[in-house]
Amino acid sequence: MQPFRSVTSVAAPLPEADLDTDIIFPARFLLLLDREGLGRHLFHERRHKADAPPFVLDRPPFDRARILVTGRNFGGGSSREQAVWALADFGIRVVLAESFGEIFHANCFRNGVLPIVLPAEDQARAMAAAGTGAPMTVDLESETIALPDGAILRFAIDPYRRRALLAGLDEIGAILADDAAAIDAFEARQRRTAPWLHLARDRLAFFDDLNRAPDGAEPESRAEAG
Amino acid sequence: MSALTLYDKVWRDHLVKDYEDGTSLLYIDRHLVQEVSSPQAFAGLIAQNRALRRPDAHVAVADHAVPTRNRARPLPDGLAARQVSRLQENATRFGIPYIPMRDRRHGIVHVIGPELGFTLPGATLVCGDSHTCTHGAFGALAFGIGASECECIFATQTLRQRKQKRMRVTLDGRLPAGVTVKDVILALIGTIGTGGGVGHAIEYAGEAVRALSMEERMTLCNMSIEAGSRVGMVAPDETTFAYLEGRPLAPRGAEWDAARAAWRALATDPDAVFDREVRLDVGALAPRISWGTTPEENLPITAAVPDPDAEPDPERRARMRRSLAYMGLEPGRRLDEIPIDRVFIGSCTNGRIEDLRLAARVVAGRSVAPTVQAIVVPGSAGVRLQAEAEGLDRIFRAAGFEWRESGCSMCVAMNDDRLAPGERCASTSNRNFEGRQGKGGRTHLMSPAMAAAAAIAGRLADVRSLA
Ligand code: SF4
Hints:
The complex is a heterodimer of chains A (226) and B (467). Chain A has helices spanning 21-24, 44-47, 82-90, 102-109, 120-131, 159-167, 171-178, 180-193, 201-204, and strands at 6-9, 11-14, 67-70, 94-97, 114-117, 136-139, 144-146, 152-154. With 226 residues, chain A is of the alpha/beta class.
């Protein structure tokens, strides 16, 4: 994972509450199998609205923003990590909001994106500052936001997640390296105390008849369609 | 030792280790794998050349992208076909059971987990899908995760987590006629808001919860995420055991007896303390309808579309205006006068056999309004076969409903079941977000009985007034 230390950038103001992950990344693009290149579908409906002014992320200087300032309950709803991949692909590394959807919040940390929860008053100041189009600096080490007028806002990040982001930690690698013995021991213990939680071979035989013919393979002919 | 809640006990039983920074490594017993959140996780595993730790802990099924008619033909959408076949390839490669869409065990992950007995009390269960909280109805610690976390489960069978706060929702009283548990959860979300449960694991308790069937408990727990909480649980009891006994993957014989004894001990200790308590008298509720574009924007069917000008909080007012503009509604209009175009009965919230029975009872002997296109999408093939054995399909068809195959369908509109821009739908699903059922589509959330009533009336309607 890409480490995160500090970002200096203009911040895009998006003063709306409840921007859920369906709005951030509409479901029909979930059929794509990759995590790269999803930025072009970010906020798709908002950015392709007929007879509406251009969406904030399509307007200079905010089209190059790496910080997004938005309203309460950002990223609620679906667990789709595509919402974070799309933000990151677009270039957003920091999201400031009053609150976040929980799964979205967790997904951010796994993709080098820093979600910062601010109290209402600080949020309002950050929003106003973003509107000026002048750059602000978000520093994870010191847990501060330096607004364009020099004012400093403080925030707090879970210490584990802060360290993981600063180091660009590979969490899976760390668990495999440090905790494998503890996991082995847990499994051995659980097999004694709650054996039903381990699906044994005889129980899994229930699935043995599953047919192995390709499911939903590419259509070979569309002759029948219509 | 101090008193523990249900959540504390399942957490304790899955603790691999505590780290010094207050996070913990939690063991995950079971993982449901679907096509949308797994391809990137499998790709990560392959790229890092990592093994799958425990193939027997996963079951794979494609539910989001599959069509619900013409299953005999290849998928009409090339992208969907690629996504579904990718899941099967990955499952085969890593030795995970894969349930094809034409199989009698197919269905939405959150419907088949319990049906198969894959979901068990006291287990930890995850899926790359936010409605994994559904399985908490069994007293499992079940929660939705992102694709990167799926990858972590594949490789380590654990997740590094911080324990949630505990919140108890106590439901008192008895449900009045025409009012269902869907109305209860909508009322709860309307009360505490879509952020009300953030940071908390919810336990549903109280006499009204004890009286609920497993299907109803699943509907209740399912929408915990719409209240902001990843976790919603109900302590296992005789209702739970009766549902599970004899399910294909449930324990048997002496192991069943041992498991049941362990499950009985999971109930929250009488003197356990919750960080937050909420009470709701279900006896005072009416059937509810969502009017906006977030689940908390819902009201009794007897109400009118609210007026943003009467809302003092400016952010809420702006939110309401945006919702009403999107929904094409004017303040003051009676909810039961709003005409609809489509009806969707299905999803992991309300696509189970009891839901279909409830809707069929309303529909029997009546006809869908000529202006309405209505579909029933059973949550699983098992539900579909059971409904057909009971003759429910004939009731729906005779009334003018389409009877479909299992899948997520119009809950998420990733297949060809979707609303056209501006179309208005009475839906038993769980999310009324902008574009959720198709770009520009307008969703009203409600119970299966209310959706059936709307289909007949051609407008949002109070099921209690249908003579
Ligand atoms: S039915 Fe809807 S909410 Fe449930 S898993 Fe499928 S898409 Fe998600």
